[in-house]
Write a structure and sequence with these properties.
Blueprint: H1 2-81, E1 85-88, H2 92-100, E2 115-119, E3 122-129, E4 132-139, E5 142-149, H3 157-166, E6 179-184, E7 189-196, E8 199-205, H4 208-220
Parallel strand pairs: 5-6
Antiparallel strand pairs: 1-8, 2-3, 3-4, 4-5, 6-7, 7-8
């Protein structure tokens, strides 16, 4: 009888132990099962956050680059608008006198000098001497002169015709009283100067086309 009770206790005790182990195993597995999806979700979230941050950084860099690119044309336009040099005088008479005293200015075609047909109904006069040739003509309030070196065998006529042709397609600033253009192919210097009120504007260029283009741009920004 005692042995049966002892055996029964032993069996009962083993059953309780096994049941306890099963519960712990189930609890552990349950925890692992619960923890695994959460860890993967966190990893996915962290990876997505990193990807979003990387995309944001790339977008920010692209935005800055586009902003800098868009500013370049503006910078180039501002630079172009400052090509003209400006002199301010006390009154209009002084400004006018400054322009009419510039080299190459003449009030009109010189009488008694040979004439040259420059096209478009414009006639110039040719003055030769002292190793140089000067071809002069007027258009509106502008007085133009092309200077060439006779010693170097230069001819001012082709350059004068080129200038007249270009001025048929573009509009120089309209001087209030006087403007003067000097195109010196002997020294490769080209200048356009004009007056408005008590101010005188002037641009320089590396070629006739260059100085004309600069004057046109300056006239738009007066």
């Amino acid at each position: 009888m005692k042995m049966k009770k002892t055996s029964l206790l032993v069996v009962t005790g083993m059953a309780l132990i096994l049941a306890g182990c099963g519960n712990r195993s189930t609890s552990t597995n349950s925890k692992k099962a619960d923890n695994t999806p959460k860890t993967e979700a966190v990893k996915r979230s962290e990876n997505q956050t990193a990807a979003d941050q990387s995309t944001a950084n790339v977008s920010a860099v692209a935005t800055r680059n586009n902003s800098q690119t868009n500013q370049q044309p503006t910078a180039q336009k501002n630079q172009a608008s400052t090509n003209a040099q400006t002199k301010e005088f006390n009154d209009q008479a002084q400004a006018t006198s400054y322009v009419t005293n510039q080299p190459g200015y003449t009030p009109g075609n010189q009488q008694g000098l040979p004439t040259v047909n420059l096209g478009y109904g414009i006639t110039g006069t040719l003055n030769s001497g002292a190793g140089q040739q000067m071809l002069q003509w007027n258009e509106g309030n502008w007085s133009f002169t092309v200077r060439a070196s006779a010693v170097q065998g230069q001819d001012p006529t082709p350059t004068a015709k080129q200038i007249v042709s270009e001025l048929e397609n573009v509009y120089l600033p309209a001087p209030q009283n006087h403007g003067v253009g000097t195109f010196d192919i002997a020294t490769n210097t080209y200048t356009l100067t004009w007056q408005k009120n008590n101010k005188v504007y002037s641009v320089n260029g590396n070629s006739p086309s260059d100085v004309i283009s600069k004057a046109v741009n300056a006239g738009k920004n007066e």
